[in-house]
Design goal:
- Helix 3 packs across helix 6.
- The chain is built from 6 helices and 18 strands.
- The chain is globular, with a radius of gyration of 19 Å.
- By secondary structure, the protein is of the alpha+beta class.
Length: 292
């Protein structure tokens, strides 16, 4: 099976029933293509030995435990899900071109783990194609798009809903994990992905990113333009990356620095109301006019 996400091709060897259990991948599924066109090939059901020694990194996102070991040639990962005694193992080269995992999905928990491993494989293979997955809610209008960034609970999804309610011809592109792609000429594309948080929005679409807003709750509505350095720090904080992996970190940070220097970014201090949406929309329109 082959997936196209943000114009990156991932091939999964084995697991022909994946789409039955992970239907959010269906809009991104493609017919088989030549191996040379794939950015990342994922091999399921491999025999792997557990890693020994102290991991270089431990993370606990949403109750999951992820342990990671780095060597000069490879990255090894162990994933454990809540309520599951099985440990899912993954090993890959440092550019995530070839990924091997002991996961051979047969249960609902296995498919949850597979979804996590697919997202990790996309994040770190796409990093070397100038593509970055970020935590944001994003809206599309025609061929243009806008991204709202900030920590969970700050009002990103609420602001997107205000756009949908009050700004004509808008559509939700993704509500949690969109992707940014830096093109050679400097333009930036914004993509829907198979990962959209609690909102089922799985659009295999792309638009031109025209503006970025960092959401802040406030008593009054106000927008302040960020400097390039401030925009870079905001994007870095919103991106998915393994900070102790210098190889992928260098690729992701380079892409984000170029995006920060090209796309207008603002802090939007706001109330959850129509007036705030109209303020950010006006700045979005100004950004569109200056980039065309």
């Amino acid at each position: 099976m082959q997936l196209q996400i943000a114009d990156c091709l991932l091939r999964i060897e084995g697991g022909n029933e994946i789409l039955d259990y992970l239907p959010h991948l269906l809009p991104f599924a493609l017919p088989e293509a030549a191996d040379s066109s794939c950015l990342c090939k994922i091999h399921l059901g491999c025999t792997l030995s557990p890693c020994s020694g102290t991991p270089d990194m431990v993370a606990m996102p949403d109750g999951r435990q992820i342990r990671i070991w780095f060597t000069r040639e490879s990255c090894q990962l162990a994933l454990e899900l809540p309520g599951c005694k099985h440990t899912y193992l993954l090993t890959t080269d440092r550019h995530w071109r070839q990924v091997w995992t002991n996961l051979c999905p047969s249960t609902s928990i296995d498919y949850m783990a597979l979804n996590d491993l697919l997202m990790l494989s996309f994040i770190y293979s796409a990093a070397f194609a100038q593509v970055v997955l970020i935590h944001a809610s994003c809206i599309a209008i025609g061929e243009d798009g806008v991204a709202f960034l900030g920590p969970s609970g700050i009002g990103k999804s609420t602001h997107s809903r205000l756009w949908l309610a009050h700004i004509p011809h808008t559509r939700l592109l993704n509500d949690d994990q969109p992707a940014l792609r830096l093109l050679p000429e400097g333009d930036v594309l914004l993509y829907g992905t198979p990962w959209s948080g609690k909102t089922p929005c799985y659009r295999n679409e792309k638009v031109h990113l025209r503006a970025i807003f960092q959401m802040k709750q406030a008593r009054e509505n106000e927008a302040v333009r960020l400097t390039g350095i401030q925009a870079f720090r905001m994007l870095l904080g919103a991106s998915s990356l393994m900070g102790r992996d210098g190889v992928s970190f260098a690729a992701i940070s380079k892409t984000l620095s170029q995006i920060a220097g090209h796309i207008p970014a603002f802090v939007l201090r706001n109330r959850p109301e129509e007036a705030a949406a109209r303020l950010s929309h006006e700045l979005f329109l100004q950004s569109v006019s200056t980039q065309i």
